[in-house]
Model the fold of this input.
Amino acid sequence: MRDRETTNIGYRILRYRQDSRILRTMSRHAAVFGLLLGTLLAGCANLASKPAAPEVTLAGLRFVDAGLFEQRFALRLRLLNPNDFPIEVLGMNYKLLLDDRPFASGVSSKSVNVPAFGEGVTEVEAITNITRIVGQLKHLATTGQGQGPEALDYRIEGGIKLSNWGTKIPFEYEGKIGGRAIESSPSTVQSP
Done:
């Protein structure tokens, strides 16, 4: 009888050790699973909060170069970050319209860091052609805009690629160019 009790107790101890190992292994797996799940949920929460589109305004415009078929302008663009975190602009495409008529366009891969609730300025090139310039001059001559104290309406539109967001964020801004100075007035900024 004692042999049976000893064997039974030995079996129970062995069984207890095996159960303990299984429980410890399950606990480790549960901990790893919980950690991965928490990381995944935190990542998804971050993706859910889309960055607000930066406001892009025209801060300056100057002539750079002229050829027979194309002309180059330097655009100074001011980027205003309405987000509570800094953004890094990896690149952008843009189009400048004067009085709702296409004037110049371009792309830039110049990186710009804009602090949270701050601003940054970058200079980019825009290209136009002689056809657009002649068309613009004819349009201005017939409408009389841009002459004297009147201001010329402009719109800049395009898309911005941020380092922390997968798709381009569209932007649009309207303002007025009066003589040599550029006056800007707020417009609707498209949200991503």
Observations:
- Residues 80 and 119 are 4 Å apart (CA to CA).
- DSSP finds two helices and nine strands in the chain.
